[in-house]
Amino acid sequence: MSTVADQRTSVPSGLLAGSWAFAIRIWIALVIALYVSFWLQLESPTSAGLTIAVLALPTRGEWMEKAFFRLIATAIGLVASIVIVALFAQSGIFFLLALSVWMGICVYATGLFDGNKAYAAALCGTTVALVAIPQIDSPQLIFEASVARGSAVVVGVVALAFVSDILAAPDSHPNVVVALNALSRRVLDYSRKVTGAGAASSMQVCKLLQDITALRPQISGMAIESVAGEARRAAAHATAVELVVTTCAAHALQTTTQANTAAYRSQEVFGAIQKDAAQQSTREAELNDEDRLASCSAWLVNDLFEKNRRIHESMNALQRDAYPTRQWQTPYFPARRAAMTQGLRAALAFAVIAIFLGITGWPTDVRCLSLVAVLIGISATTPDVRGFTTLALIVAPISCVLTGILLFVVLDGATNFIFLAIGLAPFIVGSALLIASPRIALASLGRANLAFTLVLLAPTNPQTYNPETFLVTCLFLCLAAFLLFVVQFVIPPITNEERLHELLETSQRDLDQIDPSPHRYLAAEELLYRDVVRIGQVAAAAGLTAPSSSVDQALYLLDRTASIRRCIAELAPLANSPLATVVESARAAVIAGNAIEIENSARQIWSAGGPDSTAVLPSCSTLLVAARILGTAPSPAIANEGNER
Amino acid sequence: MTTTFRELVIGGVLVAPIISYVIGTIAVALVLRRVLYRIKFASYFSNPQIAELSLYVAIFGLLVAIF
To answer: What would the mean pLDDT of A270-278 be, rounded to a whole number?
Structure first.
C-alpha cells in the first residue's frame, strides 16, 4: 500500500500550487465578469459566467484559442438564431424541424474537426439552443436576446484575458516542449531498438503515434499566446511531423527485418555507416548483390538517424522561438461517414425529445429543450457520447444539491455582491481544482459541475431566491440529462465498431486508390501525418488495453501506403535523368504493389546507376523496403479482420 | 464637449462603435505581432504577457481617441 508520502512524491512538483493558482484565477475572473455584467446591466450575466466556466483551461494558449473560436461560433450561432426565428417562428413544427436540422449540421461539423474547431462547431448549435429556443413565444425579442448573449460572452472573454495576464497564467509552450522532448526520446529509443536486434509491438508503436498526434490541438493553441507564438507553433508542428515520419520509417524497417534479411539487423550495418566515404566510393565499384543489400541497409539506418537529427533541429528551433528549417502542416483526418451518422442521430434525438416535450405541454419546457440541445452539442465534442450523457446524469443532481446549499444556506437571501463573490468561492475553486486534476473523469466532473452550478444559480443583480424557480430549473436540468440518456438507448450514438469500420475501410481505399501524382496542397510527410492521425483514431476506438487485430491491420495498411508514397517521392528526382525508363517501370511496379517487380527494378536501377551509387542509393533502399513490406502477407488475424469487413 | 462615436451600419443594423474599435485593434495587433517578433519584443520585459496586453489596450485607446 502506498503511503501518503509516496503519493506526495508521485505528484509532480508545483502541480498542487499550479492547480490552486488556476482555481483562484478562475474564481477572480468569474467574479469580475459577473460584476462587469451587472455594472453594464446586461440581460444575460449567466452567459458571462458560463464563458469563464467553458474557458477554464490551465494554460493561456489553450483558453485563448478556445476564446477565439467561442467568439466566432457565437457570432455564427446568433446569426443562425435570428434567421431560424425569422423564417420559422410562426410554425412550431417547422421551427423544431429547423432546429433539429441545424443541430444535426453542427454535430456533423463537429465530427469533421478536432480540438477547438470541433468545439466551435458544437457551439454554433448550442448558441441557437440558448438564444432561439427561449424566444419561441416572443420572436420579436430575438435580436435583443442575441445582443445580450454576444455582449456577455465578450465580457467573459475580456475578464479572463485581464486576469490571466495580470496573474501570469502559464503558457502552453513549456508543456509542449516537455511533451515533445519526451516523445523525441521515445522515438530515438525505438530507432535504436529497431537498428539493433529489438522490435516493438504494434500496440507500443500505435501508442507512440497516438501520443504524438494527441498534441496537435495543444500545439495549435501556442500561436495565439505570444508574439513568438507563430514561430513556436511552426517549430512544434515540424517536430510532430518529423516524429511521425521517423517512427513510421523505423516501423517500416522493423517490418522489413521481420520479413527477412539478417543484414538489416547485423552489426555489419553499423560497420558500413562508419566507413569513410572515400573508401566507400572505391569499394562500391565491386559491389555484388549482397553488397547492394548491405549498402541499402546502411543507408536506411543512416537515414533513420538523420531523421532523428532533424527532430533535434526542430526541437532546437522550438526552444529558441525560431521558425524551423522545414515547415509542415499537420492535417486532420475527418471520418466523414461517422460524422454524418452522428449528425443524423443527434438531429433525430433532438427531434424526438422536442416532440415529447411538446406533447407534455409544460409551460416552461423550452428551458428543458435548450438544456437538451446544449448537452447534445457538448457531448458531440467528447470521444464517448454516451459516457458524457451518463456523467451529466450523475453530475446534475450533485450540482442541484450544491447550488441549493449555496443559494439557501450560504447566501440565504444576501443581495450584496461581496457576499455573492465570497459565497461562490468554495464552489468555483473546488470545481476548478477538479478540472486541473490529471484524471480525466475528475476533470470532466469538475467542468460539468462548474457549468451546471452557474446555470442553476443564474446570477442576477440583485440575486433572486425563489425556491420554486430553482426547483423547476433543477428538475429540467435532471430531466434533460435523463431524457437524452433514455433516447440514446433508442437512437444510439455511433459506436466504436462503426467508427473502426470506417477508419479501416478508408485506410484500405487510400491504399487501393493511391494517387502517384503530387497532392495539390500536402507534401508526402503531411499526408503521412494525416494517415497517422487516423491511426490515433483507430487506437482510440479500439482501445489499447489489449492487443487488437484492428490496430494491427491499421498499421499494416499504413506501412504499405507509406512505403509506396516514399518510393514515389524518392524516384521523382530520377525521373528526368538517363535512368528515366527504368525509373518509370519501377514507379509502375510500386503503384501496382508488385513486390517481385519492385525488387527487380531496384536491381536494375542499381546496375544502371554505375559505380557511383550515391544518386540511386535512396531510391534503391526505399524500393527494397517497399518490396519487403508489399511482399509480406498479412497475419491470419489481420486477414480475418479484413475479410469480415 | 461630448465625444461622438461613429456607428457602423450593416444592412440597416446599427453596430456599437466598440465592436469596430475591437476589430480594428485586432487587425493592427495582427500586423504588429510580426514586427514585435522580429525585434524580440518579449525579451525586453520580465512579464511579456502584461506588456502585450498593455500594448493592445494602448492601440485600442488610440483608435478610440483618433477615430
So the answer is: 43
Hey, what's the cell of A510? 487510400
Percentage of the residues of chain A whose pLDDT score is greater than 70? 89
A401: pLDDT strictly greater than 80: yes
The Cα A601–Cα A124 span in angstroms is 54
Answer with the residue of higher pLDDT: A363 or A83: A83
pLDDT in tens, A192-221: 998 886 788 888 999 999 999 999 999 999
Identify the residue among B30, B44, B49, B52 best suited for mutation to test binding to A, counting A beta carbons within 10 A and taking the highest: B49
Angle at A149 between CA A461 and CA A87, to 5 degrees: 135
Nearest CA among A160, A201, A130 for reference residue A51: A160
Q: What is the pLDDT of residues B35-50, one digit of tens each?
A: 999 999 989 998 888 9
Q: How far apart are CA A358 and CA B4, in angstroms?
A: 49
Q: What is the number of other CB atoms lying within 10 angstroms of the CB of residue A46? A: 22
Closest to A376 in 3D by CA, of A523, A297, A491, A463: A491
* Burial of residue A255, with CB atoms counted within 10 A of its CB: 0-12 exposed, 13-18 middle, 19 or more buried: buried
Q: Is A278 exposed, middle or buried (0-12, 13-18, 19+ CB in 10 A)?
A: exposed
Q: What are phi and psi of B14, to 5 degrees?
A: -80, 130
What are the Cα distances from residue A580, in Å, to A239, A441, A591, B47? Answer: 34, 58, 16, 59
- Nearest Cα of chain B lies from the Cα of A52 at a distance, in angstroms, of 19
pLDDT at A272 over 60: no
Cell of B51: 506588456
Residue B9 bridge partners (DSSP)? B14
Burial class (CB in 10 A: 0-12, 13-18, 19+), A73: buried
Alpha-carbon distance of A471 to A429, in angstroms, equals 24
- List B10's β-bridge partners, or say none: B13
Q: Do B49 and A161 touch (CB under 8 A)?
A: no
Nearest residue of chain B to residue A143 (CA atoms): B13
Candidates A154, A161, A227; nearest CB to B36: A227
- What's chain A's length in residues? 645
For residues A386 and A496, the answer to whether their CB atoms sit within 8 Å is: no
Query: What interhelical angle do A15-39 and A417-435 show, nearest 10?
Result: 140
Contact between A52 and A159 under an 8 Å Cβ cutoff? The reply is yes
State whether residue A287 is helix, strand or coil: coil
Q: Are the beta carbons of A226 and B47 separated by less than 8 Å?
A: no
Provide the shortest C-alpha distance from residue A228 to chain B (in Å).
6
d(CA A169, CA A159): 13
Residue A573 DSSP class: G
> Helices A289-319 & A617-631, crossing angle to 10 degrees?
100
CA-CA distance, A461 to A464, in Å (whole number)? Answer: 8
* pLDDT tens per residue across span A328-383: 999 999 999 999 999 999 999 999 999 988 888 776 678 888 999 999 999 999 88
Q: Is A458 left (phi over 0), alpha (psi -120 to 50) or beta?
A: left
Least confident range of A281-285, A338-342, A492-496, A529-533: A281-285
Mean pLDDT for chain B? 86
**Cell triple for residue A632?**
509480406
Q: Which of A12, A39, A52 is nearest to A457 (CA)?
A: A52
DSSP character for A407?
Answer: I
**Secondary element (H or E) of residue A607:** helix A595-608
